[in-house]
Amino acid sequence: MNEVRTLAKQTMVYGLGTIVPRFLNYGVVTLFYTRIFTKAEYGIITELYAWMVFLLIILTYGMETGFFRFSQNSKDYDKVYSTTLISLLATSTAFLLLVNIFIRPVSAFLNYSNYPGYVRMFAAIVAIDAFTAIPFARLRRENRALLFSAIKIANVVIIIVSVIFFLLIAPGIYEKSNGWFREIYDPDFGVGYVFLANLIGSAATLILLIPFIILKKPVFDCTLWKRMMAYSLPLLITGLSGSVNDTLDKVILRRMMGEEDGLAILGEYGAGYKVAVLMALFIQMFRFAAEPFFFERAKQSDAKKTYAEVMKYFIIVMLIVYLGINLYLSGFQYIIGKDFRGALGIVPIVAMGYLLYGIYINHSIWYKLTDLTIFGIYITMIGAIVTVLINVSLIPVFGYLASAWAHVASYGSMIIMSFIFAEKRFKVDYGMTQFIPYFALAIAMVLFARYFNYPGIIAELAVNTALILIFIAFAQYRDNILTLVSRKK
């Protein structure tokens, strides 16, 4: 239990660097975008940021996890970090140069031939963020969670300030100005200022990380690099397959629904998805703390017991978060503009998909600890196939509702396959059947809240708060009973 408390403390600190900035992002930026941009314009933002997920997976090529794995030996720590940093610097620089050299075909491929400026900024953001992934990984490895969080928060604050200036303040200055400001500011650039603000934020982050980027003795160990690549490349394929589950819907919706209406439909879906992604923020917060935690505890004799305990409390806490998002959806809906709220029906579905993804993250540590990362490919490929089949076959019939359910089906299949593959290789007794009542109760509560006709907002808040308290009491009671039974055995 002490180990779980340690992880919980680390997770809370990392929350400062994930939950706080993301809440600022959604509370300010998303609220702002969905009120000043049309659905089609917001569709551009949704689509290009979906492509960003794919590219960040490619440009980090599993080296974050590789860094954690190979830096376990403190004697090789500096060499591992230097080799990893130089590798990411080379590939990120090459990517940025290639995109700018072949800007026309790249823009045409993305269907943004008329907006090459968007693509250039987009490429620069991706290159910087991919490179800085390793300095951030170093902060996590050294348990410097507060500094990690401070830089992450600074990044989002800079982006928010830039967005407000470019899209709210600058147009007023432009109207009143007759001089140099009219030469450098274009009010018709619109969505482009979203990417410019992000680029400024990424560049500021790069500057803040300079103390961890400039090395006293840069070393690139080719032999070590080859070993790291052999370990990390399967994680690249795993990551790509996983990103298909997360982003394919946003990439193909526009194309499957038609160019004329596709961007508007994608914009509405993307806005509803943003509310559900609040669930993903907690998952990400946990992942930042859990990955180094799992590796550090791997050598302990009771490591498997610790992993099982972590899984139990993770599921219970995430179900409480799930209830918090969906039972207070009448409040969270104001994150997005009124015209975008037609997609709120996907929130419970996508949020459940992310919860299943969090369970998979917990369980998938088995193949990382045993260097059997090839199984990560098998598992995520199966999940990707499920995602593709559901999206391609059902989007024409059910629209973006099919994309929402694809997340649940995909992550559910990945959990099943992970347990099957781990059975004879790294079995941990998680006792997953004990969680069925928790899921059943939480889903029943969400369905009740969705279809019950509340007499007013006060009654809705009171009843839904009571439901969450009932769930917490149930979880506490059941946990005490199971603990007593376990001790008697």
Count of β-strands: 0
Question: What is the overall silhouette?
Answer: globular
List unreliable stretches of 5+ residues.
none
Order of helices and strands: HHHHHHHHHHHHHHHHHHHH
Protein architecture, described:
Helix content is 82%, strand content 0%. The protein contains 20 helices and no strands. Helix 7 (145-176) runs antiparallel to helix 9 and helix 13 (303-327) packs parallel to helix 19 (436-451).
Helix/strand layout:
Layout: H1 2-36, H2 39-60, H3 63-70, H4 77-101, H5 103-109, H6 116-141, H7 145-176, H8 181-184, H9 192-208, H10 210-213, H11 222-256, H12 259-297, H13 303-327, H14 329-332, H15 347-363, H16 365-369, H17 374-398, H18 400-422, H19 436-451, H20 457-488
Which labels suit this protein?
single chain; 489 residues; 82% helix
Describe what is shown at a glance:
The protein is mainly α and 489 residues long. The chain is built from 20 helices and no strands. The chain has helices at 2-36, 39-60, 63-70, 77-101, 103-109, 116-141, 145-176, 181-184, 192-208, 210-213, 222-256, 259-297, 303-327, 329-332, 347-363, 365-369, 374-398, 400-422, 436-451, 457-488.
